[in-house]
Amino acid sequence: MLLSMKKLFICLFVLITIGSVTAQLTVRIYNYRPTGDYGAVFKPTISAEIGSMRQFDEDNRVRWVFTGTALYLKPRMAEFPTTGEIEDGNGLKVYPGTMAYKLYLAVQAHIGIDVALYRTEKFNAFIGTNAIIGGVLFHYHSVIPGFQDNESIGSGTQLGVRFRAGGEYQLNDQLGFLISANRSYGIMLSADAGGFFSANDYGIGVSYKF
Amino acid sequence: MKKKFPLLALTVILLMASACKKAKKNYDDYLPKVKIESAVVQTDGSVLVTGRIESEGSARLERIGLCCSTGDPKMTDRQIVCDLAGDYFSGIFMYLSIDSSYNFRGWATNKYGYSYSDLLTLTDVTPPPVTAPCTLTMNTYNTGATFGSGTYSGTTHRFNYSTTYDYYYLQANSSTQTVELILSDPVTQGTYSITNASTPGYREMNVSFSSGSYTQLGSGTVYVNSLGGGQYDLTICDAPWMLTSSTTLHFKTRMTVTN
Description:
The structure holds two protein chains of two kinds. Chain A is mainly beta. Chain A has two helices and nine strands, in the order αβαββββββββ. Chain A has one domain: Porin (Beta Barrel), CATH 2.40.160. Helices cover 12% and strands 69% of the residues of chain A. In chain A, strands 1-2-3-5-6-7-8-9 form an eight-stranded antiparallel β-barrel. The radius of gyration of chain A is 21 Å and the shape is elongated. Chain A starts with a helix and ends with a strand. Chain B has two domains: 25-122, Immunoglobulins (Immunoglobulin-like); 140-258, no CATH class. Chain B has two helices and 20 strands. In chain B, the strands form three sheets. In chain B, strands 9, 10, 11, 12, 13, 14, 15, 16, 17, 18, 19 and 20 form a twelve-stranded mixed β-sheet that branches. In chain B, strands 3, 4, 6, 7 and 8 form a five-stranded antiparallel β-sheet that branches. Chain B has a three-stranded antiparallel β-sheet with strand order 1-2-5, with no helix packed on it. In chain B, a hairpin with a 4-residue loop joins strand 12 (160-162) and strand 13 (167-173). The chains are: A mainly beta, B mainly beta. The A-B interface holds A 33-36, 39-40, 44, 61-62, 76-77, 80-83, 85, 91-96, 115, 117, 127-129, 163-165, 181-183, 185, 198, 200 and B 1, 5, 8-9, 12-13, 15-16, 19-24, 27, 30-31, 58, 62-63, 65, 74-76, 79, 81, 109, 112-115.
């Protein structure tokens, strides 16, 4: 898993570096807000993404976007209620238990396109879509007194899609500001803790043209 | 390409808005909400507890049930897993001691976990008074034409504990008949089911008499009402025995009993 994360970062770095020759480096701080089942378990958090994207111009209203980010998610509660069941000759018995997340760290790479819906020399309004490819490290402790005590440390792969809308203001030839809102959906593939994820995020950033 | 921009924008906006299910403020909002509506002591000493589901929470209900203890009941204490009938669910708790106060709780589970209802407490689980469907003279018995009827000697008949068999038994004698009753616990108010098991179970009573050869059919009901002072009025309106394959005897009796 660590190897695949390393590969992910290398790919991202290569993409950013290649893009940087004629592109701008972007750093964005954002508020990541898990939704749906993901939001039931994890708190919103603040994170940053770094990436590369070309500037829009008169000839190009579509651009490639490459970004990467890490998300360290903390659970909403120290312990979540869970249940387990046993059915035998005495019938069905339901047992109460708990589950505690000790670690949930996701690293994501986003690759996609933006389209400028409105473009002027200084300001662009855009929408876009990205593919999400990521890896997750997790550690949880699940206990159902009497028949289960499971300490699980594992990893998974995230695959998803992100839709975004935003605007950017070019202060001068090199420096610009951007604001954007994203909506992510995806699936985490893992033998131990797979499932769907979804989130909204809202952020502001700066871009610097090399 | 420019013509496609509005369509693209609309698609992205719709996708961003769709399934935008914000996280709920409190985790409890994801869980089912249940309430205990009533707990009623039945004539056989059991307690019928009824609950209602107020909300399934944020996911499909998986299990619903009841629990009970003399302290703070948890899901596994005397657990009953119930089925929903509309919004209601119910279960019957048996083997409760009339000397104790009991707390009842409902519980429900969905994929987010489980939740409990508030407590409902019954301080007295003594069965309510019962009405026998026949009126017999006190301290008499009637075994029908074959074995006749009569009056017991003495006015009050006592259940004694047998250390050998670990049950409570009573013998009531007349000049021609001996009637024997067997219980697993001291007699209390309420109804008992007549059984032909030599060691009766909860709220069961073995009834026999000494005359003749017969087969106890193990059906019928015993009605017991408190007379105060530790005494009880015990009535059996119809305890059937098979004398032959075609003849059934209907035993009736009424007596004053005590522990």
